[in-house]
């Protein structure tokens, strides 16, 4: 797939918004009022990721072989190993530090590593894995499974089949109001955000539009976030999808349409490349740095020092994310992708 630089920029923005949210929460009331009040907008980074994921998956599938098994294996290789390393590193960290308020059990860990939705023993009301940001990956993996299933039907039907299937699941959730963790996840309105990304990719590939249209679409998405995003109840997935999801669809559409009209931003693009490592590893930096800042008696807890704490933490997270991308994520992906290609070639030879 041809690299779309503007989408890489958005991936970086999505990851950094989540890091800013989690870091800002640790600074709490010490932050200046406007900054503190704007923190909830960081939640929309997850919704951006979901829409971007749908966009990328649809774009990839139109330009590569559409074998469902190969598709799922490629996605597993891309997502799982880095997440497993981050999860095990988090378990080791909380065990060594001795965070008694975090409960880690073997069933909890195994379900987390297997991307199985389940209630957290630490936060009993939440469907969260051991590494809390990994809750989004249970949605990602289910979307990949649903997307892979559509690869079995003719191309002309896929764009209608995926929204229909996801829509039926969401309607089923409204009708039954399930309480089981897996059922709540697999019938959540958040699934529609992936569909929105697919629809944006399909529209963009056929009618990317001009500068004026895409600027207006982007501005509309930003306006929705600014006007309505501060009051979103993130636990209400319907409310979240309506506000953050619709804003994210418009923002992704506008950014994709602007494409090469945007200025080149190499650093932001590199952060976009590393956005997955930044996302899954960031709590390993945020939590200890937050404790150092909170326990520090030298610096006063003023608005300025709180902002400095957030900026320094984000710098550390970005630097570590770039390093982890180069030294962990990329080598793993190359090695495992090479094995998949060898397997694919061997199966082609065997079938002749």
From TrEMBL:
Pfam family of the protein (one): Acyl_transf_3
| One example GO MF annotation | acyltransferase activity
Q: Which residues form the Acyltransferase domain?
A: 4-319
Matching entries from InterPro entries are given as:
Acyl_transf_3_dom, Acyltransferase_3
**Sorted alphabetically, which keywords does the UniProt record give?**
Acyltransferase, Membrane, Transferase, Transmembrane, Transmembrane helix
Transmembrane portions of the chain: 38-60, 81-102, 127-147, 159-180, 186-204, 211-230, 242-262, 274-293, 305-325
- Protein's recorded name: Acyltransferase
